[in-house]
Amino acid sequence: MQITERRIGQSIILDLTGELSYANRTTFKAAVERSKHSGCRHLILNMQGVRFLDSSALGTLALLAQSFPATQGMVSLLNPQSYVKEIITLANLHQILPVYTSEQDALAGSRLPAAG
Amino acid sequence: MAEPAHRIEDEPLAGKAAKPTPVILLVDDDEMTRISMAGRLKRLGYRVIEAGDGVAGLAAVRAQRPDLVILDWMMPGLDGPSVCEAIRADGELRSSQVVLMTAHDQPGQIAEGLSRGADDFLSKAASKQEVLARVQASLRSSALVREIERTRDDLDRSHRLLSAKQAELESELQSAAEFVRAQLPLPGMPAPGIGMQWAYQPSLALGGDLFQVGAWGSETLGLYILDASGHGVAAALRAVALMSFLREENLAKAVGSFDPGAIITEANRRFPLTQDGEYFTLWVGRLHLPSQTVSYAAAGHCGAFLHSLQGASQWLSSASLPLGFDPTITFDSATAQLRPRDRLYLLSDGIYEAPSPTGELWGRERLQATLESHRNHTLAHSIGDTMTTARQWLGGDIFPDDVALLGVEVLDSSGPAKEKS
Question: Which CATH superfamily is domain B5-153 in?
């Protein structure tokens, strides 16, 4: 998994590429922790390049949803594709993590969930 | 020949009392030569063992394991090269450091000696400096060989220890796996008029996917399948904990009802996300036997597939959060009607997420099509063949995730479905 960090105002976008799974959850968690400690108010996980999400990663995202607001602000998902989108939908993850289809909407911090 | 009196300056071991004195075995039938060489070696600070012929020399090598063996070439009976060969042929001794001693070191003789197992040569006429240099060089080699042997022995011991530990752990894992498997229902008829079969293949010895079918009250059959995230021992232990919660007597006490929505709502409250983000997905159904109505609810679980012969087949699941993702929510039950010969399959996502060698997932559509293709086969055949088809898609026998496939069928009055001829 490759993770690139972009800071835009008080938001941080983590562009994720590859598989988000048990095997690389340490890397993912470390990137999230770095973002948290850098004082960002809105962490946006760009899922566009994520082709696989396993159950462990789903739990990590849920944990993030539970823990992030308490300390900082909000965390949201951007543009999950095909299989990953299906998994997120099946697990109703958008109920606890806002999902956006455009970076502009995500940055605007709209709480409106993405269509579909 | 007596050595000069200045042996202290050349003493190789002077000031190194901490190291054990190297032991040199000197084998020579000529007593005068042996006494002279032994004296030189002793004055150089070595401990010397002497043997008067090849046979005694070989016995001393076995008994004393000296750091260095100096062998005279010409000896009655077993000569030097023959002793060399005997040492090299013995697994216990073959790493011994051996120097052949000759009166005439001709090239042909040296070649023969080396080919028969000697490590070096020493002329009987060698100077004190040469004797010292050759002995020191041979002892350095000997020390290295001994160190390698010690390391090898340490590794062997560690390997044996690890193997024993591994065997112990595997045995414990096996016991745990047997315990988990013993929690699963016995195939057959869990209630009058209901048939049940299943296949279960954890990705490791212990799985985090478990299921059960059993009586919940006098007229209802409870069914569930759960999936603990993660694999191995931790997932299996957590799965068994949730299984205990789902026991009939516990549900009556803890939930006060066998309504699937109420059961999952309570489980959602009691099983929060762990600190590592581990959680459960769960599908619970309750089959009312007189009406053959199934009510069900799911928490993030891919759920169950109702294969109906007369009505519409459907997936009995809907988007829902896994257990513990939001402890405040409630889960509602939905219902479906079963008819004679209908089949209800409970399955883990591991089966339809089986990847092909190119990475393409098998998918729910292919799984559904496979199950439906067995409408005229027995339930056992349907389950067995569906597992086989999934393995064929996978291109192997080991699924990356736990795989469970449980089928329950409503038997018609004529008994279980007959195999298509």
Answer: Response regulator (3.40.50.2300)
